[in-house]
Structure formats: C-alpha cells, structure tokens
Amino acid sequence: MNVDMDDESKKARVDDEITYDQPLPGSGALLTIGDNRITTKYAEQIQDAILAEDHLNFFLNKYKYLTKSHYESIYWRGIGEARKGLTTTQNINIFKFMNGWLNTGRQQGLFGKTPECASCGWEEETQLHMYQCHHPEAKRTRTQAFKQLAKYYHSHRISTVVYVPFITLCKEACTQSTYISHDVTNPIIKAAIDKQRTLGKDLTIRGYLVPEWLEAIAAYNNDKPELQMRHLFRGLWTILFAQIWETRNNIKHGNTSIVDKIEREQLISELHEWKRNSGNRLSSGQQYLIDYNIHDLTRWTTAGLTSTVELLIQAAKNFRQAIQNEQNLITQYFNPLPTTSNDQ
Questions:
Q1: Cβ neighbourhood burial of 153 (10 Å; 0-12, 13-18, 19+)
Q2: What is the pLDDT of residues 253-270, one digit of tens each?
Q3: Residue 97 to residue 132: CA distance in whole angstroms
C-alpha cells in the first residue's frame, strides 16, 4: 500500500492540477502554510505547523496552572538549538527531565511504590525536590555544581552581569522558601528575571527559559549571542542537572560499578595533571579553571569530573589558537629565497 501511495503521489505531483494558489513569482517561496508564504527554514516551519497546536494542548493540559501566554513566553527555538550536538544519552535524559518523566519517587508512587525521597525522607520526591534535598551529599553536589556552572558560563564569554543573576535565580529553585531578593537595578536583567519568575521554579530549573535572556546577553556581548544563549541552556542540563541526577542515583542505589570506578580514576588523574602543568597549557586568564582542591576530587560526581576536563581541554585549545594567531612567521622578517626549477 505504501509503495502504491508513493507512486500515485509522484504522478499527482507531475500531472494533476495545482489545488492551491502558487507563490508570488520572484518571492522565493516554495510553499504556503495558511496565509504565510514560506521562503526559509522549510522543515522547521512545516514541523511547527504540524505539531504546534498539539504541543500547546499537551503543555497546557500537563501544567494546568499555566496559560497560553506562559507557553508563548518560552524560547522554544532556543531549546531546540541547544539540544543539537548533544549525545543521544544526554538528549534522552534531558527530554525526560523537561517533561517530568524521570524515575523519581513521584513517578514510582504512581505505580503503588513509596513516593518519598530515599535520601532525606521527604514525603514526595519530585524533580524539583532533587534540587532541594537536605542530604549532605546532595547539598555538597549542588555547591560544587554551581561553582562549575559559573566557570562554564564565564569560559563561554557570557557576561558576568548576565550569568551571576541567572545563577542566583537558579539557586532560588534549590530553596523551599520564597524567592531570594535580587539587588538588580539593570532594567534589561530585571526584565529577564521577572519574566522568568512567571514560569515558576520548576520550569526554570528544567531549562524553559524566556527569550529576554538572549536580549540581555546581546546587550553586553553582541558577538554571537545565540551561541552564548545555547550555552546558557546547556549549562543547566550538562553541568547542574547531570551532577544532581547522578548524586541522587548514587545515594539511592550506591555506586559499585567497576567501569565507573576506572573512569573516575582516569578523570582524577587527568585533573591532577592539569593542576601540575596549567602554566604550560592555560593562559593567565584561564587559571581560575584549575582552582579546585585535588583532595576534594574524589568526592566529585563523575559528571562533574568529566565536564571540568572537557572545559580545560577546550580552554587549552583556545589558548593554543590565540598563541598561533599572535606569533609572527619567519617570512615577516626574511623574504623567502627565490626558487628555480632545479630546486628540490
């Protein structure tokens, strides 16, 4: 049946009459959706036309306390761009996290099991509770993860005027009290904070960010602000969430995997080496990346160790490129010798 339908579609495309108005000559449009003539990003706009209404209904049914205006205030395109290039495993975990489908106590409670937090005994372990858990290891992981998050944002050239208030906003989600007061007077940053707060702590920590953060980033560094915005999303997922989720699982299930132990030993050894040879690998402006205490590395999560090594590798690569760009070639001082056909 599928083959026959494909054959009929091909014949119809070539021989049948056009059943819609053709795009204006010279407009560059290849199709129309509703009243819009589409000229760019065809796949993206076709997907949006097919899924947008269903996704809106799904979202509002899932979060009954939110409205269509809340939905439209989320930077959906930024979410999609930020997830490009991540591994399949990362994207699966992020997808579950953003939709509230992680296997937490709340999910287990829906199937007749105890919903309480195995770490601190809280009556229901939601995804938001993972960020608020009182277990000592959970607290220590959050502290370390936020330090690494600041380094990540700084190394990816997001202005401190933007990322410091943003991290403070994320720390609010880790408290069970009301919002922490912000001493922010900058109208651009304040607008982003106020708009983000309308979505609530839970959606903020999951990465449902508002486009006002892009405006704030562009206001202080207009060099590829979309790329910096991508890292604002990724920091929440690959630094903060990855470490908190790993610690939660280790507390509940233990960590006896021999493969994970070998991986951790290799990562710790690499970080020792970076500490010893930072002067040769990093510039003076990058030394903040190795301000960790080597005696504390054994208590870091594997995700934290991995993200730090990746950050150092990228920083060293940037340093080498900067040196190469600054160095003068010998031909700038001596003209190259003329060559003849007999030269080898």
A1: buried
A2: 887 677 788 999 999 999
A3: 16
